[in-house]
Amino acid sequence: MADFLGPYSWEQGQSKRWNPTSGEGLVRRWRGSQQMCESYFNSLQGTQGVLDLSMDQDGDGPIYIVTAVFGLIQDGVAETDASIPYFWELAGNMIDKSVFDHPKFYSGQAVDEGASPPIYMTFAQVTDVKQAIQDNLTGAPLSAKIATWTTKQVQLWAELINGRETYQVSSYALRINRTFSSLYENTVSTANVGKLYTYAQIQAEASTVASPISNAVNANVPASGYWLKQAPVLSELSNRKLQMNQEWWWSDGYSQVLYDLKT
Q1: Which of 211, 7, 263 lies closest to 89 in space, CA to CA?
Q2: Residue 104's closest CA among 119, 123, 90?
Q3: What is the DSSP code string of the chain?
Q4: Are 210 and 84 in contact (CB under 8 A)?
Q5: Where are the domains of the chain?
Q6: Which residues does residue 235 pair with via DSSP β-bridges, in sequence order?
Q7: How far is CA 61 from the centre of its chain?
Q8: What number of other Cβ atoms are within 10 A of residue 185's Cβ?
Q9: Within a 10 A sphere around the Cβ of 145, how many other Cβ atoms?
């Protein structure tokens, strides 16, 4: 290998690398005199798109090598959705539901067959239990009241009087993780946060940003219910990357009065 001195450097062959945190990167190397390599090294610090930078002496001689790892897109060209690393995750989740929604209070002959799920107790029966708690009935007045209640009213009373106003059920959280470089051309969208999605709508939204959901995830999502879109979480990484996590929380009992459907 020929040695060369003076204020000169030559760029060597380029290569590519990939890791799950920063995605794809373009590796560029310059070989030359210490003077010129130090100039390159100093000028590249803080340059947009540079993910990693190093300067090493080539053996014991006066030759040095500067190595810079750039985001895959350079020269001011914006990074597109199609080039962004991503992965999907379907995670178990727990949600709180009101004891009034518990299936045990909907068993037997329903009072309101038109409700979904059917209501076992009437509104008046539920209100009577709530009023007894509010009045803090005890002793003979409580015994007289309980004597007029149905079995379901007594069960509801026992849960509420012991402070059990909610119960937990297993649910799901669908999560996408995307990693952007400093040259990403778009902004992270917050559209439809707080709205209810069908799973098909999540799939369609994922396709618009070139992040399709795998068949393995598709095969394990619930067949019914809705997914509530959460606000994204943005994390700035030390290598000039931005990591975004977006979640949808599933439930089969979301109120379409309290939450709007995504249109």
Answers
A1: 211
A2: 119
A3: -----SS-EEE---EEEEETTTEEEEEEEEEEEHHHHHHHHHHHTT-TTEEEEEEEE-TTSSEEEEEEEEESS-TTPPB-GGG--EEEEEEEEEEEEEGGG-GGGS-SS-SBTTSSSPBSS-HHHHHHHHHHHHTT--HHHHHHHHHTS-HHHHHHHHHHHTT--EEEEEEEEEEEEEEE-TTBSSPPP-TTTT-EE-HHHHHHHHHHTT-PPPHHHHTTS-SSSEEEEPPPEEEE-TTS-EEEEEEEEEES---TTTSPBP-
A4: yes
A5: 9-71, 81-93+171-251, 96-167
A6: 243
A7: 51
A8: 11
A9: 17
**CA 59 to CA 74: how far, in whole Å?**
31
How many Cα neighbours within 13 Å face the side chain of 34?
A: 6
Could you list the mean pLDDT of each consecutive 10-residue stretch along the chain, which spans 263 residues?
49 81 79 85 78 89 88 60 83 86 70 73 85 89 92 90 90 90 72 96 93 92 94 77 88 90 95
| Angle, in degrees to the nearest 10, between helices 123-134 and 151-161 | 40
Residue reference for tokens 């003077």: 35
pLDDT at residue 199, rounded to an integer = 97
Beta strands at 166-180 and 226-229: parallel, antiparallel or unpaired: unpaired
| Contact between residue 133 and residue 149 where contact means Cβ atoms under 8 Å apart | no
pLDDT at 183: 64
Contact 198, 40 (CB under 8 A): no
Task: Please name the residues in contact with 169: beta carbons below 8 A apart, sequence gap of 6 or more.
Answer: 94, 95, 97
